[in-house]
Amino acid sequence: MSSVFTKIINGELPARFVYRDDKAVAFLSIEPLRYGHTLVVPVAEVDKWTDLDPDTWAHLNQVALKVGQAVKNAFGSSRAGYIIAGFDVPHTHIHLFPADKMEEYDFGQAYAADATDDGAMDEAATRIRQHLDTGKDGFPGAK
């Protein structure tokens, strides 16, 4: 059975893409720690990051570096948080989010009441895409 991320990648479920290529995608988390919280996911459905082939692992981190810089710049944060947890969806994914202090790395924190406001989520995706020069589909150069 396909993971929820495979369904998103295949267009069966909606997502706010900010980056896409033939090996990796990046889209906003539906349960953000902060606006701009983005997931970098391999197209190949592999549960544990430790099971990825070295080329895919390297590519995911290249994408995470690019997207992380865009997240940091788009939200004016001092850092881009980077976490691999791997417990919520059985498909490797890297969490990236704007961060200014260690307390913001807490996945146990309650989400803000407006953390998934559609307008604010759309704006967050647009801000990140502007720094990546990608379109709504996540592909580079597409407007």
Automatic annotation (TrEMBL):
GO BP, sorted A to Z: nucleotide metabolic process
Protein name (Swiss-Prot/TrEMBL): HIT family hydrolase
Active site per the UniProt annotation: H93 (tele-amp-histidine intermediate)
Keyword check for Nuclease: no
Motif (Histidine triad motif): 91-95
Domain HIT: 4-107
Keywords: Hydrolase
Organism field: Corynebacterium phocae
GO molecular function ontology, one term from the record: hydrolase activity
Pfam family, one: HIT
